[in-house]
Amino acid sequence: MVTNARYQQTILLAALLGAGCAPALEPAGSPVPLAAGVAEPVALPIADDSAADQAALEALAALEYGSLDRRADHLRGQLPAGASAYERATMASRGGAASVAGPTYDIDIESFAHHRRVQYYVDFFLGPARDRFAIWLGRMGRYEGMIREALRSRGVPEDLVYLALIESGFSNSAVSRSRAVGMWQFIGSTARQYGLRLDTWVDERRDPFRASDAAARHLWDLNEQFGSWYLAAAAYNAGAGRVSRSIRRLQGRSHSSTLSDTTFFALYDRHYLRRETRDYVPKLIAAALIAKHPDRYGFHHLGILEPLVFDEVTVTEATSLDVLAELADTTARALAELNPQFYRGVTPPGQTVVVRVPRSTGRTVLARWADLSPGERVSFIDHRVRRGETLAIIGRRYGVSVRLVIAANPGVKPRRLRIGQRLVIPLNARARQDAAAGRAPAPPRATAPASRYHTVRRGESLWSISQLYGARISDLRRWNTLPTDEVLRVGRRLRVSRS
User: Fold this and answer.
1) Are 79 and 372 in contact (CB under 8 A)?
2) Which of the listed CATH numbers 3.10.450.50, 3.10.350.10, 3.20.20.70, 3.90.230.10 matches domain 453-495?
3) Does the pTM of the predicted model rise above 0.70?
4) 409 in Cβ contact with 424 (< 8 Å)
């Protein structure tokens, strides 16, 4: 039976860029017609965006200390010699800097806006990363109001919304080299500490709503410990222990025992923090300077994405997102964007969970879902091979023939299954027909970090590695000169991208 107890309509209204406030969520109630000018959810090209995001974020993390050459061609004429980006921006309007009504902030941006490292990152965002930064600013429109509300409700400065910009470019599918995941780049231990669910079926680090609330609580706790939002930001990046040790080292040199934002820059000047953490706050300030007033920095005609507008429905049994998409008369990609926490493309079996569906479709989805048999609710499932399993055993478990399992997993070798290998198992009639015709769907997979090489772990196969990196098995064999009969060795380093 469908439970309607948590059926709820949620509307996220756009917050004006730089306004510093966001309207509260509409209370639960019956669906209302779509407001004029508010678009239905539009799915992003998630995979392409994630790869480009990751490349830009890694470039941002890998910059060497120094200043960008303002005469370089890649700056596209934005920074004439003799003036910093911040100075040019604040003098851009008629009447000069004295007459400019600048934006306001709830963190101390003005005191450090001219810091050389802040200027370095302003130059970077306006130069090599300009195209990507423009996309991030556009994507910010989808989440800014919700994030500001989450931060404000926890007593955290709303302008820390820009941490999500430098962490992930507001991408829910971002995965770092250290396996931090989601818009707020939580590692597993911290995510669990703040109540985010991480298991075989759900990763709430990818849920922008749950993760934003967890980030707000985490930042509040760090500020309580250090008494400075910039020290809290540094601890968000490096961990509270490392920042605490650096502060003790600083205070051992007769520095004031009172902690403030200037303490961070004292740590910066003495190189008491590792480079990534030293640069974290300058990146934040540079991003805030531009994002708060993008027109001043030449970001015109941004493709601002509409905030997500959706209903929430409760399902009590495993259901594929593509099935729910059909019930809501939308696309599987749109459902995946609304529900990125269900990273396997299916809700957990035997559990009651809330699923977001496009606005004004909630009641229809509930009614249609109730009419489906359990076999019709799941089109496929993602199965990991266990010790001793064969295709026949797996097929019997799900009531699927070996022939269909092979059809749904091109390239699988029945006699060479590996422990941990992932198989797509078609379950309902339509999925089985698609598999037999060679059209079996592949489940959504986590975005892997942008990398050229991968070290083989126990239980991995070429198929599982190809799924992780979005590469074809034939390409992996060609790039690594692997014969078709060669068994992968644990610890082997494989090339996993063309360049």
Assistant:
1) no
2) 3.10.350.10
3) no
4) yes
Q: Any residues with CB less than 8 A from the CB of 290 and at least 6 apart, and which?
A: 122, 125, 126, 133, 137, 297, 299
Q: How far apart (Å, rounded) are the C-alpha atoms in residues 138 and 452?
A: 29
DSSP 181: B
Q: What tokens does 323 get?
A: 């099935």
- Longest distance between any two alpha carbons in the chain, whole Å: 78
Using CB atoms within 10 Å of the CB of residue 414, give its burial: 0 to 12 exposed, 13 to 18 middle, 19+ buried. Answer: exposed
Distance CA 32, CA 309 (A): 12
What pLDDT sits at residue 200? 75
Of 368, 381, 379, the closest CA to residue 422 belongs to 381
Q: Which residues pair with 310 in a beta bridge?
A: 10, 358
CATH class given for the domain over 380-436: alpha beta
445 in Cβ contact with 468 (< 8 Å): yes
Q: Is the separation of the CB atoms in 440 and 426 below 8 Å? A: yes
Determine the distance from the C-alpha atom of residue 152 to the mean position of all C-alpha atoms in its chain, rounded to a whole number: 21
Alpha carbons 322 and 314: distance in angstroms, whole number = 16
Long-range contacts for 368-372 (Cβ within 8 Å, ≥24 apart)? 368/327, 369/2, 369/313, 369/315, 369/319, 369/324, 369/327, 370/1, 370/2, 372/323
Angstrom distance (rounded) from CA 44 to CA 46: 5
The per-residue pLDDT for range 3-61, each reduced to its tens digit, is 333 333 332 222 222 222 322 222 233 232 222 222 233 333 333 455 566 666 666 65
H, E, C per residue of 310-334: EEEEEECCCCEHHHHHHHCCCCHHH
What residues does each domain of the chain span? Answer: 8-42+306-372, 46-297, 380-436, 453-495
CATH of domain 46-297: 1.10.530.10
Virtual torsion, Cα 97, 102, 106, 109, nearest 10 deg? -30
The Cα 33–Cα 77 span in angstroms is 47
Question: Is-same-fold flag (46-297; 453-495)?
Answer: no
Measured between alpha carbons, how far is 355 from 362 in angstroms, rounded to an integer? 10
A 10 A CB-CB count for 138 gives: 17
Rounded to whole angstroms, the Cα distance separating 65 from 75 reads: 18
Among 106-115, 439-448, 486-495, the minimum mean pLDDT is found in: 439-448
Q: Which amino acid is present at 448? A: A
Between β-strands 380-384 and 453-455, what pairing exists: parallel, antiparallel or unpaired?
unpaired
CB 1 within 8 A of CB 316: yes
